[in-house]
Design goal:
globular; mainly alpha
């Protein structure tokens, strides 16, 4: 049954209002990044004289390029390790029957509910004793606390929906658990891997508290901390234009990834929501 014209108009109006609410902060960040000096206090929806120098100053006045490279290394390593561990954990939790399986799954999810400040001291001691302080690998290790539980849950829900006949046929041919996961299940789990991988990447890319605590120099510092440390050229100059320019720069990779993987993300998020 087709919706009436007033209902469609109301739905379109609500969608437009929601879109405006979500996109306006991003638009305002772009506008602010093109301003400097007293123009920052003027309400201009289109800056009359765009100042592109903010984008140049971000890289010229600090090692922002190095910080971006560190963020790419940290986020990519976190995603790779989380997906590798999560894939085999999902197989055990969805295909192997053992006592306490459901309790273990809830415990994995419960770990991600702890606030960062509650585990900060313990993680600092661990990172320091492993010799990973002020190194990207130390951040990747600490980020697994928050990325791995969600990854396990998404992959477990998706793997439960895969036909059991595929695994049975592989076992008849002599395939072991490792071969079943890598050769049979892995090619079918693109949507779930894209969803959990992208969300893990976003968490690792935007995380601030651990990055601030576990790094001291640009050798391991990531972009959230680098943005927080941006200051004006003089004590009377406000750095908001440079901060917004840096924010726009580091947001672009996330937008590109989300747009490139949007179909797989939707499929991964809806995995397990419909049962026959």
């Amino acid at each position: 049954m087709r919706a009436s014209l007033p209902h469609r108009a109301l739905f379109g109006l609500a969608a437009a209002a929601l879109l405006l609410f979500l996109l306006f902060p991003v638009y305002w960040a772009v506008v602010t990044s093109l301003k400097s000096g007293s123009a920052l206090f003027a309400v201009d929806y289109l800056p009359p004289r765009p100042v592109w120098g903010n984008y140049v100053a971000v890289f010229a006045e600090q090692a922002f390029g190095r910080n971006i490279v560190n963020s790419v290394i940290v986020a990519s390593t976190t995603v790779a390790v989380a997906l590798a561990l999560g894939l085999f954990a999902a197989y055990a939790l969805s295909r192997v029957t053992f006592r306490g399986r459901r309790l273990l799954l809830y415990c994995i999810l419960g770990v991600s509910m702890f606030p960062q400040i509650a585990v900060l001291t313990g993680m600092f001691e661990l990172i320091n004793r492993l010799g990973l302080y002020d190194r990207p690998l130390g951040l990747s290790l600490s980020y697994l606390i928050f990325t791995l539980p969600f990854t396990v849950w998404v992959l477990t829900a998706f793997m439960r929906e895969l036909p059991v006949e595929l695994e049975d046929a592989a076992r008849v041919d002599g395939a072991g658990p490792f071969t079943v996961v890598v050769r049979i299940f892995l090619p079918l789990m693109g949507p779930a891997l894209a969803t959990s991988g992208l969300l893990a990447f976003i968490v690792a890319w935007n995380e601030f508290l651990f990055a601030l605590t576990f790094t001291l120099t640009n050798r391991g510092r990531t972009v959230p901390v680098a943005i927080a440390l941006i200051s004006g050229a003089s004590e009377h100059e406000l750095p908001w234009g440079r901060i917004m320019a840096a924010s726009v720069i580091v947001t672009l990779p996330l937008v590109i990834l989300a747009l490139a993987c949007q179909r797989r993300i939707v499929a991964g998020l809806t995995a397990g929501s419909v049962r026959g």
